[in-house]
Specification:
Length: 258
């Protein structure tokens, strides 16, 4: 079935729209008379500092209600070390809006060296691996860790074998089978999640086995007894890139071919 889209004022300027509104006495949102250039949500993470000023002047009760909720959130997430002055700064300076997608920058913190013939890849990180980083790799296969040496391996016979040393900045991956491109996509998606995670918890419900636990502001944990390596959390497209942080952070850590 065909769909007809009709946009009669698509090419009009703002001046033309307002002249038409006033000429034909068309009712409009009174917020425009209060200085707003556009009208949407009263409080929006994408708003400018000027819009925030207007909102404080015109809707003080809504701003107060919102900031009270933010304070409760901050107190809950950082209960162990709650600092009211830091919380006020976080709220008043609009730091709670840091995940907005304006002017996204991508910082390459992983560089990849390849050997296509042997299907082997070396991922050079700009940071040392730690125990939490391994949690993000756990859904990809069986994790083996030797505490005495720090050596770890994540293996899936059908896809790949990932190995490295805890505290080191190098991952070595040997891909199995013919679908290297697809398997590499799965691996890199988890690595990018690990580098950008803000502990929002949005990925928890993507796991049918309830194996994911996210402790806001502290840690990301996969229960190895519950994880079936179904890759639902990796393949999930509940948002672009399969991760809220990757979709909405202003500055994202990325992988670069090298």
């Amino acid at each position: 079935m065909r769909q007809l889209v009709f946009r009669p004022i698509l090419d009009w300027s703002s001046l033309a729209v307002w002249l038409y509104i006033h000429a034909y006495k068309i009712p409009y949102n009174p917020a425009y008379d209060r200085g707003y250039a556009r009208v949407g949500c009263v409080i929006c993470p994408f708003s400018t500092d000027f819009n925030d000023f207007l909102t404080r002047e015109n809707y003080p009760e809504k701003v107060q209600s919102w900031e009270t909720m933010l304070m409760h959130y901050f107190r809950k997430e950082y209960a162990d070390g709650f600092n009211p002055d830091l919380a006020k700064e976080w709220i008043q300076q609009g730091l709670w809006k840091k995940r907005k997608p304006h002017h996204k920058n991508q910082q390459a913190v992983v560089r990849v060296a390849t050997c296509p013939t042997l299907k082997e890849y070396a991922y050079h990180l700009d940071f040392p691996t730690d125990a939490e980083f391994l949690e993000y790799l756990r859904p990809l296969g069986k994790l083996t860790f030797v505490a005495e040496t720090g050596f770890f391996k994540v293996a899936d016979e059908q896809r790949f074998c990932i190995s490295g040393m805890l505290g080191d900045d190098l991952l070595t991956i040997s891909f199995n089978g013919s679908n290297v491109r697809r398997n590499r996509f799965l691996l890199e998606r988890q690595v990018k999640k690990a580098m950008n995670c803000v502990k929002c918890g949005a990925c928890v419900d993507t796991c049918p086995s309830h194996a994911i636990e996210v402790r806001p502001g502290t840690s990301f944990v996969i229960d190895e007894q519950k994880c079936t390596h179904c890759l639902s959390c990796v393949r999930s497209n509940f948002t672009h890139y399969g991760c809220v942080a990757l979709s909405y952070k202003s500055e994202r850590n990325w992988i670069e071919e090298g």
